[in-house]
Amino acid sequence: MSAHPSPLLGPEGGPAPGTAGTRFGFFTDTSVCIGCKACEVACKEWNGVPDNPRGFTANSYDNTGALGANAWRHVAFVEQGRAAGGRPADLRWLMSSDVCKHCSSPACLEVCPTGALFTTEFGTIVVQDDVCNGCGYCVTACPFGVIERREADGGAWKCTMCYDRMRGAKQPACAQACPTDSIQFGPLDELRERAAGRLAELVAAGEGRAQLYGHDEGDGVGGTGAMFLLLDDPEVYRLPPDPVTPTRHLARMWAMAGAAAAALAATLAGSLLPSGARRSRSGGRRWR
Questions:
Q1: Which residues contact 208 (CB under 8 A, 6 or more apart)?
Q2: Does the pLDDT of residue 86 top 90, yes or no?
Q3: Dmax of the chain from CA atoms?
Q4: What is the distance between the terminal CA atoms of the chain, rounded to a whole angstrom?
Q5: What is the pLDDT of residue 111?
Q6: Strand 211-213 and strand 183-187: pairing?
Q7: Residue 220, beta-bridge partner list
Q8: β-pairing verdict for 87-98 and 156-157
């Protein structure tokens, strides 16, 4: 059962019957993340995501590294020192469970040539592995570096927000497994309101650098379906500070390309005119 009851959620924390058309999403409160990786394990177990061993990295407790085809959840460990009154820097851990952002303007979906990616009735973005041809266009288009091709089969894979569970009125496996309520699932409008309230609490408690990420519908991806409450700048968590869907400026780019092509054509046409004709047009003497 969800820790945050809503008329739009059923008894098991998933979308209630009749809520198709309502957008659902994640709100990750990193201030209470303990880095247990229960979300990573639950995601792999439910979705059958293959193992992705990295071995000993010698630079972090983070043994996942980044999101990818075999890591749909990634718990980041950021070791951060803070100077305090001239004394040696105090150490603190910043932990955050990263996931696909399920963008409002998903670049991956816009560039897919086969229709393998689609927007569900819950506003989430899902890859149909039986339709994906492995072209990789979505990989280069994603401004967050989330989606990746799997070497074993060549297909593109990423978080589905447990679409199968949502259709069965259950919340995603990661949210259900989270022991601290760091990962919250629910109607996106409710999550935005809750996130704003939690941010106000942290700022009032002295966390001056706390900020929301992915909540702004006016950003370069139209807002996201996975929001984060961060305790420092996005770059600290290896998140892009100003993500932009590459196709957002496509019309302007084509217009500029057309203007450049027209200018080039005019220049070439002028260079191919007979030299006498060019002198005649300029008012100079024409030699025969």
A1: none
A2: no
A3: 94
A4: 94
A5: 95
A6: unpaired
A7: 244
A8: unpaired
Lowest mean pLDDT among 29-33, 87-91, 105-109: 87-91
Q: What is the mean pLDDT of residues 124-143?
A: 96
Is the pLDDT assigned to residue 126 strictly greater than 70? Answer: yes
* DSSP string for residues in the chain: --SS--TTB-TTBSBPTT-TTS-EEEEEEGGG-----HHHHHHHHHHTPPP------SS-S--S-S-BTTBSSEEEEEEEEEEETTEEEEEEEEEEEE----BSS-HHHHH-SS--EEE-TTS-EEE-TTT-----HHHHH-TT---EE-TTT--EE----SHHHHHTTB--HHHHH-SSS-EEEEEHHHHHHHHHHHHHHHHHTT-TT-EEES--TTSBTS-BSEEEEESS-GGGGT--SS-B-GGGGHHHHHHHHHHHHHHHHHHHHHHHS-HHHHHHHHTPPPP-
pLDDT tens, 226-267?
999 999 999 999 999 999 988 765 556 556 667 777 778 778
Q: What would the two tokens of residue 246 be?
A: 């590459």
204 Cβ contact list (under 8 Å, min separation 6)? none
Tokens at 71, concatenated:
């890591």
Length of the chain equals 288
Contact 189, 158 (CB under 8 A): no
For the chain, what is the mean pLDDT? Answer: 88
How far is Cα 286 from Cα 191, in angstroms, rounded to an integer? 78
Q: Are 227 and 182 in contact (CB under 8 A)?
A: no
Distance from C-alpha of 147 to C-alpha of 138, rounded to nearest angstrom: 7
Could you tell me which residue, 285 or 276, shows the higher pLDDT?
276
Instruction: Give bridge partners of residue 157 from the DSSP assignment.
Output: 148
